[in-house]
Amino acid sequence: MRLPMKVSMALAGVLFLALVIINNLLQTAAAPQGMISFQLAGSAEQAHSIIRSWSDGRLGLAYTALWLDFAFIVSYLATLLQLTRHFTRDRPGIRERRIARGVRVVFVLAALADVAENLVLLNNVNPATDALSLAAAILALLKYTGLILGVAGLVIIRAARRHPLQPAG
Questions:
Q1: 1: helix, coil or strand?
Q2: Does 164 reside within a domain?
Q3: 166 within some domain
């Protein structure tokens, strides 16, 4: 592994842990999954109840999580793109390159959906609307689907390898 990949992996890990800690602090009865509940709230009524449950000072944490997520998006996208390149470094075949290109596109689309989702969520805080809540839920589902498909593509690329990255001996 090269240094830029190690740095982006470490940064993504640190930001992920920070977001998990903030998410745990945002868990309430109205938002049992914290920020994830707000992301997937499909109506203004659900979003309003979540925002009301955060009114005791946790709303600032929600804003912090959304802004911190922008840095996390950049770091996880860099990590996933570098990991894709790492897995295809010694794969000269056209099929492997085509799959890797598709995996990169899926990762970039997932990151773009994540950015759009964060922008929608930032605008959905006051006042929450049905349109913004539904858009955020759809964008969140697109993001999660894209990340899952991209990781599945990485597994396929890795499983197709007939020889190790570093030859033994």
A1: coil
A2: no
A3: no
